[in-house]
Amino acid sequence: MLKDKIVVITGASSGIGAEIAKLLSKQGAIPILLARSIEKLHQVAGQISGKHDVFQLDVTSTKQVNEVMNAILDKYQRIDILINNAGFGVFEEFIDASLEAVEKMMDVNYMGMVRCTKAVLPAMVKNKSGHIINIASVAGKLATAKSTGYSATKFAMIGFSNSLRHELLNKGVLVSTVNPGPIDTPFFDTADPSGHYVKEVKWMMLTPQKVAKEVVKVINHKKREKTLPFSANVGVKLYQLFPNTFDRLMGNVLNRK
Ligand SMILES: NC(=O)c1ccc[n+]([C@@H]2O[C@H](COP(=O)([O-])OP(=O)(O)OC[C@H]3O[C@@H](n4cnc5c(N)ncnc54)[C@H](OP(=O)(O)O)[C@@H]3O)[C@@H](O)[C@H]2O)c1
Known about the structure:
It is a single chain. The protein is α/β, with parallel strands linked by helices. The chain is built from 10 helices and 7 strands. It has a single domain, classed as NAD(P)-binding Rossmann-like Domain (Rossmann fold), CATH 3.40.50.720. The chain has a 7-stranded parallel β-sheet, sandwiched between helices. Strand 1, helix 1 and strand 2 form a beta-alpha-beta unit. Helix 1 crosses helix 8, helix 3 packs parallel to helix 4 and helix 4 runs parallel beside helix 5. The radius of gyration is 18 Å and the shape is globular. The model has no long low-confidence stretch (mean pLDDT 96). The site of NADP nicotinamide-adenine-dinucleotide phosphate has 31 residues, from helix 1 and helix 4.
């Protein structure tokens, strides 16, 4: 099913983006790896034996996004799947957070996804075929302390995706979101430099390999949304039904950042 599919992955130089690229290649797809660090991209690409490609891209630059997506479309004639994965977080209380950090998170996580989707969507609609997968987070379903800036970007990604899905009904283009809980990746070097949060949640951290497998399942089963792990999905459902009770009972556990 994935054989020879052109899959563009942002944030593929590290963490789950790199694992998704490797797994998709094993399944016969042609991953196109994008990120700012060209050296890291080549390191990841070196672990991929199948056909693949690498482009340097900073998703905060509209010009670069348009140039790179057009170059990929020129070279391969189509993009079958776009995985908007580039992102970062800074976990701190809003009163201490700099506006620059809040703005930058929105620029990379949310606007990066918007720019890449805008650049790729016309070709997908023209081909009446495509799948856009947005890597959001449990933080986009359930907000906790020290995540005002980060959580807002992930809620925004999910809102954008849910709206776009309606617009693309009957146009052959699918939109999915994947919402993982904490994953053991270099994400926390920036999000939690003290290591305090990681220590608290180490026991429940997902591996990037597990998340990559779930992303591939979302592609193969054309799933609308996947929240993982299972316990987080149950928590999100309870939070949506009983937000006050959930906050009261779970606040201490969830706010350990
Ligand atoms: N780790 C977690 O606990 C967790 C949980 C839920 C969701 N997520 C989400 O999963 C996604 C991937 O995170 P990860 O855990 O794999 O973190 P990671 O290992 O730090 O990888 C982040 C990737 O994003 C890229 N990136 C950052 N800024 C960029 C920019 N301006 N332009 C282009 N690429 C950029 C980085 O590449 P360069 O630096 O080379 O550009 C890197 O490849 C993020 O959207 C994150 O919010 C993570």
